[in-house]
Amino acid sequence: MKINPHVVTSLLVLLCALAFASSVFAGSPAKGKDASAAAPVVHLTDADSMRVAGEQRFRANCARCHAAPQKFPPRMMGTILRHMRVRATITDEDQRLILFYMTQ
Hints:
Elements (H helix, E strand, L loop, with lengths): L4 H21 L21 H15 L12 H15 L3 H11 L2
């Protein structure tokens, strides 16, 4: 059985592309840097600062699809945020601040 060199070349290119894509989509850090170090988490404790930061994060993450927030009970808003977190790629810190803003 004779193997076509074009088929072998195509398979090698495909394998290289798959290996590259898997490393990119796996979230491997670039150049040895930790991905979490790029976005430091700031824990705000002052209520006014948390409310302002929550409103900013709401406008950045939620307002592009949703109108001005309605007031929901904290438990209901927590459930809504957990569901939207995956869709909008909201971080833990963003979720905490948006929840604080939405329930005040």
